[in-house]
Specification:
The chain is an alpha/beta fold and 337 residues long. The protein has nine helices and 16 strands. Helix content is 26%, strand content 22%. It starts with 5 loop residues before the first strand and ends in a 19-residue tail after the last strand.
Length: 337
């Protein structure tokens, strides 16, 4: 299928304007993502009908804790990614084209099939996840438009490296996003992800301006992005630029892909980061990938009452009534609480 958001240049070369790399792609070559190919001056999506994963998940698994808690999301993804993170948690699919000589695999699922699957599965939302949804933008956009008509919400689980043009195009149909803010260091982004920091910050601010509900996730990697001063800058950015009501998930790293020389994140580091976030004024800070930590629960920022009790990705109790704490009446921010 012909790709969106590209412009032809001289000599059958094209420029892709879907993500912040803005790749200039020669004829018969692909962009950094590995799934958009220049064919005689026309940019083609190689994954429009190639869904490699489709599952019904709790929305909490995205993770989204303040968007329709306790509901199900129909989750889809393709191969390919516009970042090349050395610690990629889904490298087997996200990095497949770049690691396997351009290999593209997946099942032919139409937007109609995906939306129908969400309805049959009693899902309140469709999550575009597993890999970066920006790289399968054409499929995500077509599906989101259909879902919107059926009153099914749309959620991106994203690295935030899309262009403003892409975000503006999908924003009328995009209800929520969890964005990885991997670090507050441009050097980290360049060395560990093959990207830059500023475009991610701009995406986050633009999502808020477009009234897309946002939660932020940071995978805490020992010795790489867990410096307390950096975490203070990161959490201050969330509080000051996105709003203190923006949930922040600090997740535990486990050695994987090309980053196996690091140990798993100490639980104390997660607790330290959570404390930094709370001190920065954030109302909702969670730790992830650590079963048994009660900081996966939602607490009232005003009176500390446990409002949503979670067991893993399952909500066992939700005391919030009309977006308010039942004990003190504080407004609890989110959608469908």
């Amino acid at each position: 299928m012909e790709a969106l958001l590209y412009v032809p240049l001289k000599d059958n070369t094209v420029q892709c304007n879907l993500c912040s790399h803005r790749c200039v792609i020669k004829n018969n070559r692909r962009g950094i993502c590995g799934v958009r190919e220049n064919k005689d001056g026309h940019l083609e999506s190689l994954v429009y009908d190639k869904v490699i994963a489709s599952h019904i998940d709790p929305i909490e698994k995205k993770p989204l804790y303040h968007f329709l808690p306790g509901t199900l999301a129909y989750s889809i993804g393709t191969v390919g990614c516009n970042l090349q993170c050395r610690f990629c948690q889904n490298a087997d699919i996200a990095q497949m084209p770049n690691d396997n000589n351009g290999r593209i695999v997946g099942n032919a699922l139409t937007p109609e099939y995906i939306v129908d699957g969400a309805i049959k599965g009693n899902c309140k939302s469709i999550a575009y996840t597993y890999n970066e949804p920006t790289v399968f933008f054409e499929l995500a956009l077509a599906t989101a438009k259909l879902a919107h008509v059926k009153n099914i919400k749309n959620v991106f689980v994203s690295n935030g490296y899309m262009t403003a043009e892409a975000l503006e195009m999908v924003s009328p149909f995009l209800d929520a996003a969890n964005v990885d803010l991997k670090s507050f260091s441009d050097g980290f982004y360049k060395k560990m992800c093959g990207a830059r920091l500023v475009p991610v910050l701009e995406t986050l601010k633009k999502m808020k301006a477009l009234d897309i509900f946002v939660e932020v996730t940071t995978l805490l990697i020992p010795g790489l992005n867990d410096d307390p001063d950096e975490l203070k800058q990161l959490s201050s950015f969330i509080a000051n630029e996105l709003g203190a009501e923006t949930p922040w998930h600090v997740s535990r790293f486990h050695p994987t892909y090309k980053l196996t020389d690091r140990s798993p994140t100490p639980v104390e580091s997660l607790r330290m980061a959570r404390g930094i976030g709370i001190n920065a004024g954030l109302k909702y800070v969670y730790t992830g990938n650590v079963p048994g930590e009660n900081s996966e629960n939602t607490f009232c920022y005003s009176c500390a009452t446990t409002l949503i009790d979670r067991r893993g990705f399952r909500v066992s109790e939700n005391k919030i009534n009309d977006n308010k704490c039942p004990d003190c009446g504080a407004v609890i921010h989110g959608v469908g609480l």
